[in-house]
Amino acid sequence: MRPANEALIVIDVQNDFCPGGALAVPGGDDIVAPINALMPEFPVRVLTQDWHPAGHSSFASTHDGAAPYDMIDMPYGPQVLWPDHCIIGSDGAAFHPGLNIDPADMIIRKGFRPEIDSYSAFFENDHTTPTGLEGYLKTRGVDTVTLVGLATDFCVNFSAVDAAKCGFQVRVIESLTRAIDLDGSLAAARQGMADAGVTLA
Fold first, then answer.
1. Least C-beta-crowded within 10 Å: which of 68, 100, 133, 187?
2. What is the CA radius of gyration of the chain?
3. What sections of the chain are H helices per DSSP?
């Protein structure tokens, strides 16, 4: 067991991000069993869940003439338009059936505000609206976090960088993540995480 000040954050291991899902990450289900095996090592375990209302502003289907993976400008900055995914209460939004969710101390749901997307476990994409996770971890005495899950270059990346900005020591276990790699997004994410002081293990 790791020290009491360490937490494992499992990012978005949901059906829609696994093979067969609406926004499938290649090999997304390969990491489920190793994540299950890792959970007992950590005294604090948090799972995150993408949780969008139908018609979310980040869905391409919400914008006339737009296609998935188009870029648009939102009030908070550039936004990738995604296929409809992880709609509240849908099977796609459910955790992968192989993921052991019983050890979770907390489940953070994000992206439920229709007007703003949320990649990070800590902040919405405006980088100012908090999810509450920072406060939860700090009141639990956590100062070191390890991140795994989906996808390396989006939700894992944004969560890791924000965790570092919040003052946590951050490690990403790359073998327990999988990437979308949209137009070089994986290389950019790796560089951004390294620049933020995140350890890529």
1. 187
2. 16
3. 32-38, 133-139, 157-165, 185-195
